[in-house]
Amino acid sequence: MTILYVDADACPVKQEAERVATRHGVALKLVSNGGLRPSPNPLVETVIVPEGPDIADMWIADRATRGDVVITSDMPLAAKCVEAGAQVLRHDGSVLDARNIGQQLAMRDLMADLRAADPFRQGGGKAFSKADRSRFLDGLERAMRTAMKEAGQ
Hints:
The protein has a six-stranded mixed sheet with strand order 3-2-1-4-5-6, with helices on both faces. By secondary structure, the protein is an alpha/beta fold. The model has no long low-confidence stretch (mean pLDDT 88). 44% of the residues lie in helices and 16% in strands. The termini are close together. It has one domain: Rossmann fold (3-Layer(aba) Sandwich). The chain has five helices and six strands.
């Protein structure tokens, strides 16, 4: 049975994920350290994990498998879920898979090194746009169909 896992801390697409999960009749697990308003939707479970670094990530990585979908922008979590066979998407709808996860991990490490080398370098990126939201919905729909087929649904 397919499950949609969302690394929900600072996730801008929780509502969209809930709509897609509901349309497909798939369980949705919103995993965070707290601060989420529970959904009245019976398919949605809000999973609150203890405070601590990467606890939510470990919770998802321990459960996600082939036939599941994971939404995250955390590259180490994405790598573990890709290795487990899950479909993995970023919040902007881009797919993370065996072909690109190594490059994404390397880019993450490079950016961390650049930030450490230049204390005046400001972080941040572009704002989350309507186009990103649209790409996310399209990517999630494709990932759900693939995962459900893999799960025999």
